[in-house]
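User: Round two. Same drill as before: sequence, then structure, for each protein.

Assistant: Same drill it is. First protein:
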Amino acid sequence: MVLQRFIWAISRQIFYKMETSENGILKIYASSTDKIGFKLFYEHVVQLAKEKGISGVTVYRGIMGYGLSSSHISSSRFWELTEKLPVMIEMIDKTETLENFYHLLEPEIMNMPKGCLVTIEPVKIILQKHGGKK
């Protein structure tokens, strides 16, 4: 009983910190071939994020993986003609901004024929240095 209370107290603190984190990281796991209309999903997300003023977005392409988007393992092999690979779209900004962006994107994600996974986590930014213009 004491151990259960301790675990509950710790998990409550972690959950509370997650809810109150000022900055967050939004991650969308999908496939490189997923589309919104005629446009690649990850391109659509990056362009929409830029329009909405999200601080930063990076798309990572995996070399191998599986998930909700496919029932088999996808991998990058030199003899394959099509490269259906996992992608992760990662965005960092204020948590509230990311939540609002997700709610804007959610109807499009729900209408996609394939599956995907979306997470949001707190993040502590320790350096944010802007580059100079040349």
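Second protein:
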Amino acid sequence: MVKKVYSWEKDTKTSKPTNSKNLFKIFHQNIRGLKSKVYNLSNSLWPDYSHILCLTEYHLKNFEIDNLHIDRYKLGSKFCRHEFNNGGGVYSCPGRS
């Protein structure tokens, strides 16, 4: 998995130094089947959890998504296609500022 952290400091031209505590982090992964990968996903996010976790091609049905638990995250949005397989969704990390 690839983790990238971006800083907007150059774009805003502020003199305030930025560090990882000031950044809003989004993690996107084309997971290609989430059911058997929740543990590995949680381990790859530790210890610097992103604010938003966006997963695509998770290969789950609506009721499976509703009953899936990912530590430190709650389901914010989901999308399942009925004509084609392998939808995607967005999880957000509650309590992060």
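The chain has one domain: 23-92.

User: Perfect.
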